[in-house]
Amino acid sequence: MARSLEVTREDWPLRGTFRISRGARTSSRVIVAAISEDGTTGRGECFPYARYGETSDSVAAQIRSVTGAIGSGIGRQELQALLPPGAARNALDCALWDLEARQSGRRAWELAGLGDPGPVTTVYTLGVDTPDAMANAAKRNAKRPLLKLKLAGDGADIARLEAIHAAVPSTRLVVDVNEGWSVDDYRATAPLLPGLGVEMIEQPLPADRDHALDALERPVPVCADESCHVSRDLEMLAGRYDLVNIKLDKTGGLTEALQLATAARGCGLGIMVGCMIGTSLAMAPAVLVAQGAAVVDLDGPLLLARDREPGLEYDASQVFPPAARLWG
């Protein structure tokens, strides 16, 4: 029997409004690709992201554009040449991993030649808000080992950081600006970060202007997010960043994500594994990449009003490897 491909759009409400420097949302619209063959189905989830020129319509169309190739039985390596990195390829790549794992009776990490994965500790993300509101949110989550703070580049970031550090002085912090700072913002704020309990800053400058980091001091490690999608981006990051944030929706799936992790470590760069806001189906493949990562940001399901069933097991901030009935 030939393989079949099904594409489904799903909306998942958030616990509240989630804000970053470039906008706010109250729900997460994801796309699930399901590839079936001889009664077995593999699934992958992706999040179309406007920052990268993606919409639900464009990503669904990209996935459907390879229906014939999927039906003919192409594998993960052939997929890399058919679609560019991005959300569409991610959903299909992860669905192919899941399908092969189910057909072979082996777990995805065995197929990848990896050791048995263990639990990882994720950050918990606080969206942009007023200094008082973010400080109160930090207090409510003070028992979590690492908080990730979204900042906005709107002139209030130092006040936010001061309020949060005063509220939870012993809590470890990382910050994410989502390209929201200017060079002047960086110069004014970065030197203050160590004294405010901040251990890392993620993508402070716009990706097309991050060359300015070459001439700037890095009081805390700086992580590339929007500036790093796939392995070939690494040559532009040397000496500019200390870590790279690997997201499967950027790499175009687990296949390239694993390659990027290996290449980044070979370049002496630390690894952060991140996510868009999605369900456990989207996080599950990323848990494989997150083994040994310096920072793990796989809290997407914790920001949802509800997760899909079955989902990943979360114990406070610990994330456990996926059960076979979920993925891989």
Description of the structure:
This protein is α/β, with parallel strands linked by helices and 328 residues long. It has helices at 56-64, 67-71, 76-82, 87-104, 108-111, 131-140, 157-167, 183-189, 248-251, 254-266, 280-289; strands spanning 4-20, 23-37, 40-46, 120-121, 124-126, 146-150, 172-176, 198-202, 222-224, 243-246, 270-273, 295-296, 314-315, 318-319. Strands 5-6-7-8-9-10-11-12 form an 8-stranded parallel sheet. The protein has a 3-stranded antiparallel sheet with strand order 1-2-3. The longest helix has 18 residues, at 87-104. It is globular, with a radius of gyration of 19 Å.
Quick summary of this structure?
With 328 residues, this protein is α/β, with parallel strands linked by helices. It has helices at 56-64, 67-71, 76-82, 87-104, 108-111, 131-140, 157-167, 183-189, 248-251, 254-266, 280-289; strands at residues 4-20, 23-37, 40-46, 120-121, 124-126, 146-150, 172-176, 198-202, 222-224, 243-246, 270-273, 295-296, 314-315, 318-319.
List the helices and strands and how they pair.
Layout: E1 4-20, E2 23-37, E3 40-46, H1 56-64, H2 67-71, H3 76-82, H4 87-104, H5 108-111, E4 120-121, E5 124-126, H6 131-140, E6 146-150, H7 157-167, E7 172-176, H8 183-189, E8 198-202, E9 222-224, E10 243-246, H9 248-251, H10 254-266, E11 270-273, H11 280-289, E12 295-296, E13 314-315, E14 318-319
Helix pairs in contact: 1-4, 6-7, 10-11
